[in-house]
Design goal:
Layout lengths: L3 H19 L38 E5 L2 E5 L6 E4 L1 H9 L6 E4 L21 H5 L5 E4 L6 H6 L5 E3 L6 H15 L2 H20 L9 E5 L12 H8 L3 E2 L18 H7 L3 E4 L9 H5 L8 H4 L3 E3 L2 H5 L5 H12 L9
Parallel strand pairs: 3-4, 3-5, 5-6, 7-8, 7-9, 9-10
Antiparallel strand pairs: 1-2
Helix pairs in contact: 5-6, 6-12
């Protein structure tokens, strides 16, 4: 069954695709023109009186994200995170003890203090009830940023990453904002090293393997112009969604058709809808016309963890590892 989270996520992606398709290059925020990939930029600027690299002394600090400055006067001790990815980042950099509340879908890691706060429908009064000294958001919905600013609560909005570099930058932003600059740098360095080691394991192939990444059972997918697509590209895989009609105008998240996918006949099918939509190798094989596809015939329908495959935090290393493992012994155009 599709969860409310996934339904809302897909609605946002669909809306984003429409917005991207209609934006001009005069728009703010790095939004691409129609027919071009969306570009999301995240910049960090830290201003501090400390000069010795001591994280604890690095306040006040100002971080700049997409042109918006947020100044944090002292190391935050009561952080509210309404972004599952940001929650993972905060705990990865050692700021978990500073987090007092997270949204209802921030259930990783297990020790995250999950509440009934919503990241998709945030309520200013409910957030203020936790008396936060910093709030992390995935988007400014319901004018929550202005509402929190009115009561002097600083906010940082970290939207969806477009590239892996966006992930690194967002981790560094949170490191600066929480007094964990060194820890954040270490997390990024370890991720980069792990990714390099995984990529080195990828075998050379005469032809690239083709793949389809499924977001839900209505065939929403991703193109190579997303952070997910970039991860697959590290393994040398070719995305069949890139060739779909209208894919370039879909903001990176086109809705494909069964007919298109059967005709494309990808070597690999990756399911990022095992939790939300109950999909697995058996349900894919049972779809009309799918039983003869190369991926199904060769046993190359890979069941992913929806959360790991859709969040752009530190666990993108785990996502990459699952792709590398799943493709290690697969040859292009060969079933089985």
């Amino acid at each position: 069954m599709r969860t409310p989270f996934r339904t809302t996520l897909l609605a946002i992606l669909a809306a984003l695709a429409l917005v991207l398709a209609s934006c001009s290059d005069d728009d703010d925020g790095g939004v691409a023109t129609s027919g071009e990939p969306a570009e999301v930029t995240t910049e960090t600027e830290t201003g501090t009186e400390a000069t010795d690299g001591d994280d604890e002394a690095a306040f006040p600090v100002t971080v700049t994200v997409d042109g918006t400055d947020t100044t944090i006067d002292a190391e935050p001790q009561a952080i509210v995170s309404l972004s599952p990815t940001a929650t993972e980042m905060l705990f990865a950099i050692g700021a978990g003890d500073q987090v007092i509340a997270v949204d209802d879908y921030s259930y990783f890691p297990e020790e995250a203090p999950v509440t009934d706060l919503s990241g998709f429908d945030p309520n200013v009064e409910a957030i203020i009830g936790y008396e936060p000294d910093l709030v992390i958001l995935s988007g400014d919905r319901n004018d929550v940023v202005a509402g929190l600013a009115a009561v002097d609560v600083p906010t940082i909005v970290l939207g969806s990453a477009t590239t892996i570099d966006d992930t690194y930058t967002q981790i560094e932003v949170l490191g600066a904002a929480t007094g964990r600059v060194g820890d954040a740098a270490e997390v990024v360095a370890n991720m980069q090293s792990d990714i390099e080691e995984l990529v080195a394991q990828v075998p050379e192939r005469d032809e690239p393997l083709t793949y389809y990444h499924e977001l839900d059972d209505t065939y929403f997918s991703v193109t190579s112009e997303t952070f997910i697509g970039e991860i697959y590209a590290l393994v040398g895989l070719e995305n069949v969604a890139d060739a779909a009609e209208g894919a370039a105008d879909a903001g990176g998240y086109p809705q494909l058709s069964a007919e298109f996918l059967i005709d494309a006949d990808p070597d690999l099918v990756f399911l990022a809808d095992t939790k939300c939509c109950g999909q697995d190798a058996a349900t894919v094989a049972a779809r009309p016309g799918w039983s003869g596809m190369s991926a199904v015939q060769g046993g190359n329908v890979i069941e992913l963890d929806d959360d790991i495959a859709s969040r752009w935090g530190p666990r993108i290393v785990d996502f990459l590892a699952s792709i590398v493992e799943a493709t290690a012994d697969v040859d292009a155009g060969v079933a089985g």
